[in-house]
Amino acid sequence: MKSPRRTLLLAVWALSMLAAVLVIAQTRFIADLSAFMPKAPSTRQQMLLDQLRDGAIARIVLLGIEGGDNAERARLSRGLVDKLAGNPLFSSIQNGDAATAERDQRYYFDNRYLLSPAIDSQRFSAAGMHQAVGDLIDDMSGDAGLIVKQILPRDPTGETLRIIDQFGGETPPRTDNGIWVSRDGQRAVLMVQLTDSGLNTDAQAHALDTIRMAFDSLPGHPAATRLKMSGTSVLSVSARNTIQGEVGRLAVVGTVLVVCLLLLIYRSVVLLLLGLVPVVSGALVGIAAVSLGFGHVHGLTLGFGTTLIGEAVDYSIYLFMQRENGSHPAGFWRTIRLGVLTSIAGFAALLCSSFPGLSQLGLYSISGLVTAALVTRYVLPVLMPANARLNDLTPIGLRLQQALDFLMRMRWLMVAAGALAALVLVVNHQSLWNRQLSALSPISKAQSALDLQLRGDLGGNDMRYVASFTAPNQESALAEAERVDAVLRPLQRNQVICGFHSPSQILPSLAAQRARQAALPDEAQARGNLQLGLAGLPLSADKLDGFLTDLRAARRQPLLTRASLAGTSSGMLLDSMLIKRTSGFLVLMPLSPCGQGTTDDRLDLNRVSAALDANGLGQVTVIDLLEETTGIFDSYTHEALLLSSLGCLTILLLLSLACGPRRAMRVALPLACAVLCVVALLHAGGVQLTILHLVGLLLVVAIGSNYALFFVSDSGGDQRKMETSLVIANLATVMSFGLLGTSSVPVLSYIGSTVAIGTLLALVFSAGLTRIRSHARHP
């Protein structure tokens, strides 16, 4: 190659790598839930995202203090609350202490005439009082008898009970030593609400570290006690840390394995370093392309990128083996080019996915593999010293040729295996797929079990069913919530739902408060109506002076605001339902199904939505969060099946145009057998398929097509060396993806295990079904 061209090639390559490095230096790397969320969410999907980002699910941290005795745990619980109080990272810290409980009780009792939904113009008429007082006296004989006796002198119309009724169905946490404890009393429990968004994993990680440090710094902290933490934010941070740790481990171990393999084969440090040039170049360009295309790079993309080491090194292996012939046959590069095109066709299907994680993998793979191939074709020959020689692999080649000859004799057995695998899949197609998005979660079973225990200890409600809407300001949000309340109450009476929570139950709109205040009679009118209303009831008016005094005060009291809830646990509940955002407020209203905790616990969302629509509240979205996440996963799966099918058809079309239909079918047959056998083996091992297994199968086709193309094509040169290079390249790929399969992150392990098994089978089936007879007789 002439010197000016060599210089130009090296300059273009060096400048490209420098540009990629500069882009990567400015890249934001993330490891949050965004890889699993739709790019362009629907209204219902957006509500799910809002819940994950801003809802109570995303920002609540559940704490448990274990070890020591009850008194010790109570002391540490109070100490932790004191340590965290006032920290801007936390909007609320609750442990069920008596002072907070008293503030909650005082808030609802002192403000009952502004909070009670029962108050209207007829509530304090003579007839209204007679009915209300009579109902309260009747309640005295029921479960609420003790409360009725306490409140009756000041609240004879039972407004306090009306407020309490709105929160019925809840199981409050157990209390001991003045704090919340677990059901078995062996753990103190607390609840912390974080300030930052649920998708701001870095901020949440900092807040969680602050909690841990605060606990560790408590005076007299005994070694026997320990802090347990859970909640969506804890699990998200744990998942991010797991992904980050796995990416680092996979990169180091994967590099070491491939380096050892190449050193064993090459016996040359120079060739080893040259072989890694396409790998590094492809990785740099791949990361830079994803950064430019998406504005960030997800950790899962980096984890998957470690497999580029095994795949991109294939090209240099082919090059070095062919260079031993003293030339680079045109057929060799033609086959490489076709193999790259088929890989691009496969990965291009991922680019169109609405699953951001798959889109990033597609862009990374295409840009990385194209770069690796170009660098191998044009840069490596320039960098390669003239005296560089590959270790003599003739003995290995002879043994491999014998093995490949044997595989050819097994071709009918291979076809039978493919047919049997297809039959197994047809028979068991109903049980092949796992429809739960949680199947992709890196959260351990122990972490999930702890989360369930702490939620049970705190009496947490199931947030599966939620009604949601947005509003431009707090007042309109509360007013809209009151309109929704008016629709939901009849549904509750008719057992369509068994309960609901609304921010207006805790903080009514100013308009509602004014209306209730205006409905309160003046003192003279109230006294007269009371005398008439008590007629025939076993209660005298002279015992209700406190009621008249409170009624008079309520007519003049200031209206309630968010500040009125300071220091109460109800403030945390309000903040979980009335969420301030940069552009207005998000309102989340949990709905409780009847038969909760039983097999018949589904809520008829259609009836709820129809009732809202009939009352002009069509903008309120009602969803089943569990079903919605499953629906997202199903849509991804169906989309991936379609795109994968299109990708495979595109690959087949490319092969037909380049090789002819007959040869294209010979290439496709071993790939189909490999895919069928992989799925059958996974099913036999009790593994249900996810969207990531589907991606892995697409990679099997994209990578395996290279093996079949070489076996079926006459690319020139020493065929034995070509076949040796194929086996070595396959071994490198299987090692890289096999390592990925050991990852504790399902997203990585599913792809890795699928591709490792699939590419190995693709080589075996390609050797048996496409290796032409002249190859087998090659000396």
Automatic annotation (TrEMBL):
It is found in: Cell membrane. Residues 178-390 form the Membrane transport protein MMPL domain. This is Putative exporter. Its main location: membrane. Pfam families: MMPL. The chain crosses the membrane at residues 247-266, 273-294, 300-320, 332-356, 362-380, 412-433, 640-660, 667-685, 691-712, 724-741, 747-769. It comes from Paludibacterium purpuratum. SUPFAM superfamilies: Multidrug efflux transporter AcrB transmembrane domain. It comes from the Bacteria. Keywords: Cell membrane, Membrane, Transmembrane, Transmembrane helix. GO terms for cellular component: plasma membrane. The keyword Membrane applies. It is a multi-pass membrane protein. The keyword Phosphoprotein does not apply. InterPro entries: MMPL_dom (IPR004869), Mycobact_MmpL (IPR050545).
